[in-house]
Inverse folding.
């Protein structure tokens, strides 16, 4: 049997039975298809209030759903039309969390071009508001964190520890975090490039510049990988920085 | 001495007309079927008027005071027009108290009445005590000065406004296909008043589109959302039901932006009523032979004159809500315009 407005019904709501008997009556045939109700029974206003009350989410109340932002959005227009800033605002304002979660796979895809914010006729800071929605959802465990967030954390940790990053460690340490089997030297426990598993794209990415480097530069790089360079007098600063970041809740 | 003018209706438009006629020194008879002047805003105890957020006594009070004290104006309360004969320039009018008068011109300001929401049975008005009209909400504010659920006297946690009850509705027949013009703005104002005094009460406005036209856009549509956090949900409420389990109402609708059916709990539901021509308007139109809109039965101005207060009968002028939905302040100024036209018609010579 055809389903009216099929695109609106999630597959898990559609129940088909080979044979269906209700109250002793065999209704198999055309009547063996059931769509579980899609009724919205309530709004989650606590969720909505958390967004509205956050400093960068205040402008969400100014939206009048003209969809200027969505029409301007490159992600919506050229990647996936399920990415719809206007709609996310409406859903967040009424606290329709299940509808937001349905779009969890596309919600992190903002490219921060800020066209929405620049063009909004009501002065909604669309890009900021969407980040607040995502942040609030992630905080409440309603959406998985965007994968790039893991890299950000690794990067921050490296900077915090040494005051600067080291390219080789960042790359191969990150590869290790991704689950690749990296071979380490027995004494300093630093990853040795290309001995263990290395993704093909990384080999291509790194081999080309290495081939064109002179020997002294390669030696310097190898030395840095073994003995991580540090910023002068970093230890004291590190302690202060960590303390401040902890107080601000920036270290999670 | 110029002939007198009869003004029918003691609401904003009638008061506007009577005041200007009195000021111009024209003998004027003002008939009002109720026992006091002021019309709907005063008789029905409106709380705050759009668009200037003034009280009825601030806007209409000065008019009533001047009309009652001006010796040129005779106010006849509990009186209606019962018959009219004669020709333009000398109409012989008979009033319901038996008096007859000869007047040079007539100003019709017979106004509107609120839609009766019992005609929309699916909205449960009269069945569930917590479904009230926006008029009753105004009276709740103006008479008792507090917000409560009529069923238990408690403060509601959530209030819903249902737009366009009795407006833009072909189901009621061709008589109610027009827009009430004030509803969106008044709902915004009432929602703001609720949020201002009870910040913990969540207010929802269920709309199809919001028609806060002209300069009303910011104060009555943006301000409720931006400053007071009133939530606008797109979808027309199709049914209101009651759940004995939690004692709350359910508003049934489709959220047309999310494209999902919804049955959301509410504690107090406010129906935003449309406007219909009053019984007096229909009666006067029959007696005087005035042209009416074939659908809504509101009075329509003459096509030849260009002016929107000149009727199809020479010497008869129409002003205010008898011609269709209009806000109170425009109604006052239409009355004043009609009064001035009537004065010119009866040949008043005004010297300054």
């Amino acid at each position: 049997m055809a389903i009216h407005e099929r695109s609106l019904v999630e597959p898990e709501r559609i129940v088909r039975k080979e044979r269906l008997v209700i109250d002793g009556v065999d209704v198999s045939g055309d009547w063996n298809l059931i769509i579980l109700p899609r009724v919205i029974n309530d709004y989650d206003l606590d969720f909505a209030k958390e967004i509205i009350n956050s400093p960068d989410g205040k402008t969400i109340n100014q939206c009048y759903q003209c969809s200027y932002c969505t029409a301007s959005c490159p992600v919506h227009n050229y990647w996936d039309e399920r990415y719809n800033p206007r709609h996310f605002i409406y859903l967040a304002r009424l606290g329709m969390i299940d509808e937001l979660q349905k779009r969890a796979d596309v919600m992190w895809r903002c490219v921060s071009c800020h066209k929405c914010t620049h063009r909004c006729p009501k002065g909604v800071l669309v890009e900021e508001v969407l980040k607040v929605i995502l942040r609030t959802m992630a905080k409440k465990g309603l959406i998985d964190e965007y994968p790039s967030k893991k890299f950000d954390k690794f990067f921050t940790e490296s900077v915090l520890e040494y005051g600067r990053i080291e390219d080789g460690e960042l790359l191969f340490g990150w590869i290790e975090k991704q689950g690749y089997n990296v071979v380490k030297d027995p004494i300093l426990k630093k990853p040795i490039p290309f001995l263990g598993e290395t993704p093909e794209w990384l080999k291509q990415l790194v081999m080309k510049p290495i081939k064109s480097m002179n020997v002294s530069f390669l030696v310097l790089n190898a030395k840095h990988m073994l003995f991580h360079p540090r910023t002068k007098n970093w230890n004291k600063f590190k302690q202060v920085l960590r303390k401040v970041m902890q107080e601000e809740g920036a270290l999670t | 001495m110029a002939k007198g003018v009869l003004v029918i209706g003691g609401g904003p438009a009638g008061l506007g007309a009577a005041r200007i006629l009195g000021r111009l020194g024209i003998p004027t008879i003002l008939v009002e079927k109720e026992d006091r002047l002021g019309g709907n805003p005063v008789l029905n105890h409106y709380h705050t008027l759009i668009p200037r957020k003034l009280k009825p006594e601030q806007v209409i009070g000065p008019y009533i005071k001047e009309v009652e004290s001006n010796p040129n104006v005779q106010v006849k309360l509990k009186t209606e027009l019962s018959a009219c004969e004669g020709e333009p320039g000398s109409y012989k009018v008979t009033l319901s108290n038996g008096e007859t008068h000869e007047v040079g011109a007539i100003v019709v300001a017979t106004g509107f009445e609120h839609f009766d929401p019992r005609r929309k049975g699916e909205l449960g008005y009269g069945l569930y005590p917590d479904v009230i009209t926006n008029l009753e909400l105004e009276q709740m504010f103006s008479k008792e000065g507090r917000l409560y659920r009529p069923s238990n006297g408690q403060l509601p946690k959530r209030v819903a406004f249902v737009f366009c009850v009795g407006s833009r509705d072909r189901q009621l027949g061709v008589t109610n296909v027009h827009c009430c013009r004030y509803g969106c703005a008044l709902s915004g104002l009432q929602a703001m008043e609720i949020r201002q005094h009870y910040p913990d009460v969540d207010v929802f406005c269920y709309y199809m589109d919001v028609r806060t036209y002209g300069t009303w856009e910011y104060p009555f549509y943006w301000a409720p959302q931006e400053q007071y956090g009133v939530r606008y949900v797109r979808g027309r409420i199709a049914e209101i039901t009651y759940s004995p389990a939690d004692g709350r109402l359910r508003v049934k609708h489709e959220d047309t932006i999310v494209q999902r059916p919804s049955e959301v709990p509410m504690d107090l539901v406010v129906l935003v009523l449309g406007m219909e021509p009053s019984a007096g308007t229909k009666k006067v139109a029959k007696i005087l032979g005035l042209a009416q809109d074939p659908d809504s039965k509101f009075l329509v101005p003459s096509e030849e004159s260009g002016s929107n207060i000149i009727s199809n009968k020479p010497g008869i002028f129409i002003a205010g809500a008898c011609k269709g939905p209009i806000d109170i302040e425009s109604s006052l100024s239409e009355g004043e315009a009609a009064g001035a036209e009537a004065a010119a018609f009866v040949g008043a010579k005004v010297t300054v």
Remarks:
- The first strand of chain A starts at residue 14 and ends at 16.
